[in-house]
Design brief:
The chain has about 425 residues and is of the alpha/beta class. It is built from 12 helices and 18 strands. The structure holds adenosine-5'-diphosphate, aspartic acid (ASP) and magnesium ion (MG).
Length: about 425
C-alpha cells in the first residue's frame, strides 16, 4: 500500500479558510496516491480558543499547580479537537476519513509527561482503517504510556508524530506543511531576505532545529533520518517549492553540501545568563553543588562555562526565578542577565576552516553588539547576546556569510579572506 504522511501545523488548520488550502493538498495527494495519513496540530495560535497556549492559560501555566499528567490530558485535547474538525470537513467533501487520537493510532511513549519520547508505533489500527477510508487524520503531539495514560511529546511535537508514523508505515515521504516556503537560511520573520534552501541533509537541519529554527522539531528529523524517509517542508499556501530533507544530495539539484560553509543562522530567545563566582579554593564544591541543585530541580541548563573562579550558564527565562531561589538558599549571590538570545551559525562545512569565528565576532562588534558568552563545536558557533539586539545580530551574520545570495562555498570563502 503506497502511503504518504502529511502534517499540517497550527496556523494551517486555524480557520475554515486556511483549512480549505489543507483540503486542496489532501485532494491533490489523493489523486496520485492510494492512501493518506494526515497529522494535525491544535487549531491556530493563542489567543485562538483551542491553541495549546490558550489551553495552558486555563490552568494559569506556568504558575500552575496541577500535575504534569493532567497538563498532558489538557494539552492533548487541542490536537484531538483539530483532528475531528478536519476529518468532518473532509467527509463533507465526500472524502472517506476517520479521526484518531495519537493513542488510537498506536503511538506508545515512555512515562515522561510533557516531554514523552516515542518508544514504539503499532500501525495495526491505521492499516485497518485505511482499508475502508482514504484518509486517517491523526491528532499530533501525543501518545499513551504503558499504563494507558495520555502523554505529550514536547512543544512542536506534531512534527515528531508525523515522522514516527512515516517510518512505521514506511511512507514514501513525510510532508510538513507550514506557514513558510521551506527551511530558510534564517527565520524569515527576522531576516527579510532569508532564502529557502532546496535540499538539506538531515544532519544540517537537525543542527539548525536544535538551535531554535522551529520550522521543524529536531526529534522529527532524527526519527526520519534513522528510518531513511525523506521529508519535504513546504508552504500550505503554495502548490510548489519547499525544502527536501534527505541523506544523499542530488548533484544536479544543488551544491555539494559538504562544501556549504554556513547553512543558516538560528536563534533562541528568552534565555537568562547566570554567573556564580567564588574563591578559587571553593570552586570545585561550587561546580558540583550548583549543577546538581539545578538537575534536582528539573531546571535545564545550557551554555556552560567553567573557570577556576566560578561557573556561567544559562536557563530558560521561565525557570530563572526558581534557579536564583535555589542559589540564594545555598548562600550564593549570582549575577543575572535576563532576556538574552542565543544566536548560532550552523554549517557542516566550517569544520577546521580558519577565520569563521573571527568573522562572526567582527560582524557583531561592527554593530556594537556585546557578546556575553560564546562556544563552538565542529558544525556550530554559538554566541549569547542581549535579546534586544537579535534582529541586528542575525541580519549582520546573514549578510556577513552572503546567505541571501547563494550558498557560501568554501572555496569562495577562502579566496575572500
Ligand atoms: P507550525 O505551526 O506549522 O508547526 P511553526 O511556527 O512551528 O509552524 O514553525 C514555522 C515558523 O518557523 C515560521 O513561521 C518561521 O517564523 C519559523 N522559523 C524559524 N527559523 C526558520 C527557518 N530557518 N526557516 C523557516 N522558518 C523558520
Ligand atoms: N500544539 C503543540 C504546540 O503548540 C504541538 C505542535 O503544534 O506541534 O507545541
Ligand atoms: Mg511547529
Amino acid at each position: 500500500m503506497q502511503i504518504l504522511v502529511q502534517k499540517f501545523g497550527g496556523t494551517s488548520v486555524q480557520s475554515k479558510q486556511t483549512r480549505q488550502h489543507v483540503i486542496e493538498h489532501i485532494e491533490n495527494a489523493l489523486m496520485n496516491r492510494i492512501k493518506l495519513v494526515v497529522v494535525v496540530s491544535a487549531l491556530g495560535r493563542s489567543p485562538g480558543a483551542y491553541a495549546t497556549d490558550s489551553l495552558l492559560d486555563l490552568v494559569d501555566y506556568p504558575e500552575h499547580s496541577i500535575s504534569n499528567r493532567e497538563l498532558d490530558m489538557l494539552m492533548a485535547c487541542g490536537e484531538i479537537i483539530s483532528s475531528v474538525v478536519l476529518s468532518n470537513e473532509l467527509k463533507k467533501k465526500s472524502i472517506k476519513s476517520i479521526a484518531l487520537t495519537g493513542a488510537q493510532a498506536g503511538i506508545l511513549t515512555n512515562a515522561d509527561y510533557n516531554q514523552a519520547k516515542i518508544k514504539e508505533v503499532n500501525p495495526t489500527r491505521i492499516y485497518h482503517e485505511l482499508k475502508t477510508h482514504d484518509v486517517v487524520v491523526v491528532a499530533g503531539f501525543q501518545g499513551k504510556n504503558e499504563i494507558g495514560e495520555l502523554t505529550t511529546l514536547g512543544r512542536g511535537g506534531s512534527d515528531t508524530t508525523a515522522a514516527a508514523l512515516g517510518v512505521a508505515l514506511d511512507a514514501e515521504r513525510i510532508e510538513i506543511f507550514t506557514d513558510v516556503n521551506g527551511i530558510m537560511t534564517a527565520d524569515p520573520r527576522v531576516v527579510k531576505n532569508a532564502r529557502a534552501l532546496d535540499v538539506v541533509t538531515y544532519q544540517e537541519i537537525c543542527n539548525l532545529a536544535y538551535q531554535g529554527a522551529k520550522v521543524i522539531h529536531p526529534r522529527a528529523v532524527e526519527i526520519a533520518m534513522r528510518g531513511k524517509i525523506p521529508i519535504l517542508v513546504r508552504s500550505t499556501y503554495e502548490n510548489h517549492g519547499g525544502t527536501l530533507v534527505t541523506n544523499a544530495v542530488n548533484q544536479k539539484n544543488t551544491v555539494d553540501v559538504s562544501e556549504r560553509l554556513v547553512t543558516g543562522i538560528a536563534h533562541l530567545a528568552n534565555i537568562t545568563q547566570i554567573k556564580v563566582q567564588t574563591k578559587e579554593k571553593e570552586a570545585y564544591r561550587l561546580q558540583s553543588e550548583v549543577f546538581k541543585a539545578m538537575a534536582d530541580a528539573g531546571i535545564s541548563i545550557d551554555f556552560i562555562n567553567i573557570s577556576p573562579t566560578g561557573v556561567i550558564y544559562t536557563v530558560p527565562n521561565v525557570q530563572h526565578k526558581k534557579a536564583i531561589k535555589i542559589l540564594n538558599a545555598k548562600g550564593y549571590k549570582p549575577t543575572v542577565i535576563e532576556d538574552c538570545t542565543k544566536v548560532s551559525v550552523v554549517g557542516a562545512g566550517m569544520t577546521g576552516v580558519p577565520g569563521v569565528a573571527s568573522k562572526i565576532v567582527q560582524a557583531l562588534t561592527n554593530q556594537g553588539i556585546q557578546i556575553l558568552q560564546s562556544a563552538d563545536s565542529h558544525t556550530t558557533i554559538w554566541v549569547l547576546i542581549p535579546g534586544q539586539d537579535v534582529y541586528k545580530a542575525v541580519n549582520a551574520l546573514h549578510e556577513e556569510f552572503n546567505l541571501a545570495k547563494k550558498s557560501t562555498i568554501l572555496h569562495d570563502f577562502l579566496i575572500e579572506r
